[in-house]
Design goal:
Blueprint: E1 3-8, H1 13-24, E2 31-37, E3 43-49, H2 52-59, E4 68-74, E5 89-90, E6 96-104, H3 107-116, H4 128-141, H5 145-155, E7 158-166, E8 172-178, E9 183-186, E10 193-196, E11 208-211, E12 216-221, E13 227-230, E14 235-236, E15 241-242, H6 258-274, E16 278-279, E17 284-285, H7 288-298, E18 302-307, H8 309-326, E19 330-334, H9 335-338, E20 349-355, H10 361-372, E21 376-381, H11 387-391, E22 394-397, H12 410-430, H13 435-456, H14 459-468, E23 474-479, H15 484-498, E24 501-506, E25 523-528, H16 534-545, E26 550-556, H17 560-565, E27 568-572, H18 580-598
Parallel strand pairs: 18-19, 18-20, 20-21, 21-22, 23-24, 23-25, 25-26, 26-27
Antiparallel strand pairs: 1-4, 1-10, 2-3, 2-4, 5-6, 6-7, 7-8, 8-12, 9-10, 9-11, 11-15, 12-13, 13-14, 16-17
Bound molecules: 6-O-phosphono-alpha-D-glucopyranose.
6-O-phosphono-alpha-D-glucopyranose binds at residues 308-311, 355-357, 360, 363, 406, 408, 609, 611, 613.
């Protein structure tokens, strides 16, 4: 989704803004733009369709001077991905320019009203009404930029993170947010401020961050302390957080793509995820959120998991873990459906919100709904300080580091790892898990990173295997019980980056429809690790084989029975059933990755997708 960067300070703004846009590329976008007030006071705006590198090419021989500016990557909603629709947008007089992430729902009405007052619009976007309206208020009421911003935002329906630059006021940036993230970094005291959609463009300059809350306006003025106030003008105390991100996590580290790096990161980041929480020497799992709130958690009438995309798949595994270890019923909901379905939520329900970015608009809205209904809300979030992390009652960070590849990999295994520890900790507090099983899972969880390393060592074999399947137009992924959500996740990975249609199904459901699709062209991936129900999956394989389907099986190391049935297989180390997803998903990530690379596709930034879905 759209990415925002702003800078005001003593350095040249251009490299900071362009560098920031590159850091935000992972969010997904289709055009980019930049506006700076040059040293001679002129407002320079450059825009390009396509990548940030296009924008750099275009601005190469132009004036890039100035120490204040704003920049934007746009993921098209209203109006196609054209240069005219790219941000920054400019006001009628050419004085104001603005970048925006979000959707202004009542833009059509506002636009008509402004056109009736003689204003002209250059784009098809909803955003342009904001900049025009702000200038209209500024001029007709004779108020300052910040008061005009406040006044306009009170009239706006929808979601926004905005930054406004005023040519006639080159010492100040005004920004605001509602339902779309925005963070301000404080550089040199009272001289330098950075603004961005998330901390990644800022961390190389400062660790001092201020996260804006909904309906807050911030004024960054040279020579003054940061000022934050509400839309009604009340002062908000500025809370500065110390945010540290490992900069190495924001680079490819020698890998050709972020996705591959992040797949290979998994052994290490899962150790980070478990550090200080999984205590094998004490034979315990300790999650501070559970220690603090165990009464509330063990007394839950029901858990409701809300999430989207890959996080929803992790939720399906979380359901099985919590039901198995805690004997508490769990519903798993698409956040986007839950929020509009009029769901029955009881005050003694616990809602678990799972999100890598912590900014997914639908998940955030589901959290608000759950809180209004009085439920206790627990976050399983990766991005520290994100909106969902700040809006939940408590939670456990996955701590897998920034995930840049649009197709989620390490975030998924981190979520499953946290959900496993959560289910163990609640099950232990409730007394619903036997001592033996508790110990067994703790011991096995500890060796999962090493077992993932063994799968990663087969990368080149998986690459060779992938070459056979680039021809396919459809794929079927089948698994059962713990591995059913892995089938869904494997299919999603393939769809996202290779644009091959793929479906995940519970293997036993195959006979109720998908079997009709099977012929010699159809690859069928069976996740057939060595657990309960394997015999039944083997029967499904025979059914596919007798219809000439091409099977790729994910099997447990040394499974000679399945090897005799299928010609293509990938072996994963043995583990206990409930931890199987942490291993069986790895070859599916690699398979999807290599197929997309073979097809010459943009793995890290697949078409139309966004990493952080901040609009509904
Ligand atoms: C987008 C991303 C997915 C992600 C989903 C949910 O679709 O491309 O990778 O799983 O959003 O995002 P979240 O940040 O809430 O986990």
């Amino acid at each position: 989704m759209c990415g925002i960067v702003g800078y005001i300070g003593t350095e040249q703004a251009y490299p900071i803004l362009i560098g920031g846009l590159h850091r935000l590329e992972y969010r997904g976008y289709d055009s980019a733009g930049i506006a700076m007030i040059a040293n001679d006071g002129k407002l320079n705006i450059y825009k390009a369709k396509g990548k940030v590198s296009e924008l750099e090419n275009q601005s190469e021989d132009k004036d890039r001077s100035g120490t204040i500016g704003i920049a934007h990557t746009r993921w098209a909603t209203h109006g196609g991905p054209t240069t005219a629709n790219a941000h920054p947008h400019v006001s009628e007089s050419g004085n104001l320019t603005l970048v925006h992430n979000g959707i202004i729902e009542n833009y059509a009405v506002l636009r008509n009203q402004l056109m009736e007052r003689g204003m002209h619009f250059q784009s098809e976007t909803d955003t342009e009404v904001l900049v025009q309206f702000i200038e209209y208020v500024q001029q007709s009421l004779g108020v300052s930029l910040e008061v005009a911003v406040q006044t306009v935002l009170k009239r706006v329906i929808g979601a926004y993170a905005i930054v406004v630059l005023d040519r006639s006021n080159p010492d100040c940036l005004v920004a605001a947010r509602k339902s779309s993230p925005l963070v301000v970094g404080i550089g040199d005291d009272r001289q330098e401020y950075f603004i961005a959609s998330d901390a990644s463009p800022i961390v190389e300059y400062t660790t001092r961050m201020v996260y804006l809350n909904d309906e807050e306006v911030v004024v960054c003025r040279r020579g003054e302390d940061l000022r934050v106030h509400t839309l009604t003008g009340e002062d908000v105390p500025v809370e500065v957080k110390n945010v540290k991100l490992d900069l190495a996590m924001l680079d490819k580290g020698g890998f050709p793509h972020f996705m591959l790096k992040e797949i290979f990161d998994q052994p290490n980041v899962l150790k980070d995820c478990m550090r200080g929480r999984l205590l094998p020497e004490h034979h315990r799992v300790v999650l501070s959120a559970v220690t603090e709130h165990h009464e509330r958690l063990i007394q839950a009438r029901r858990f409701i998991i809300v999430s989207c995309g890959t996080s929803w798949h992790a939720g399906l595994i979380g359901k099985q873990l919590i039901e198995h270890f805690c004997k508490i019923p769990v519903d798993v909901e698409y956040a986007s459906e839950f929020r509009y379905r009029d769901p029955v939520i009881y005050p003694d329900d616990v809602v678990i919100a799972i999100s890598q970015s912590g900014e997914t608009a639908d998940t955030l809205a589901a959290v608000s709904l759950a809180k209004e209904a009085g439920a206790f809300v627990f976050g399983v979030v990766n991005a520290v300080g994100s909106s969902i992390a700040r809006n939940t009652d408590t939670g456990t960070y996955t701590h897998v580091g920034p995930e840049i590849g649009v197709a989620s990999t390490k975030a998924f295994t981190g979520q499953v790892c946290v959900l496993t520890m959560l289910a163990l900790a609640i099950g232990d507090a409730k007394g619903s898990i036997s001592h033996e099983e508790y110990q067994k899972v703790i011991d096995e969880l500890q060796v999962i990173p090493d077992k993932i390393e063994r799968i990663l060592a087969q990368n080149s074999q998986i690459e060779t295997l992938s070459k056979i399947f680039t021809y396919a137009h459809n794929f079927l992924y089948l698994g059962r019980k713990w591995n059913f959500p892995v089938a869904l996740e494997g299919a999603l990975k393939l769809k996202e980056i290779s644009y091959i249609h793929a479906e995940g199904y519970p293997a036993a459901e195959m006979k109720h429809g998908p079997i009709a699709l099977i012929d010699k062209e159809m690859p069928v991936v069976f996740i057939a690790t060595h657990h309960q129900l394997l015999e039944k999956i083997i029967s499904n394989m025979q059914e596919v084989k007798s219809r000439n389907g091409r099977i790729i099986a994910i099997i447990t190391e040394g499974d000679e029975v399945v090897k005799k049935i299928v010609s293509e297989y990938i072996e994963v180390p043995d583990t206990i059933a409930c931890l199987a997803p942490l291993l069986s998903v790895i070859p599916l990530q690699l398979l999807a990755y290599h197929i997309a690379v073979q097809k010459g596709l943009d793995v890290d930034q697949p078409r139309n997708l966004a990493k952080s879905v901040t609009v509904e």
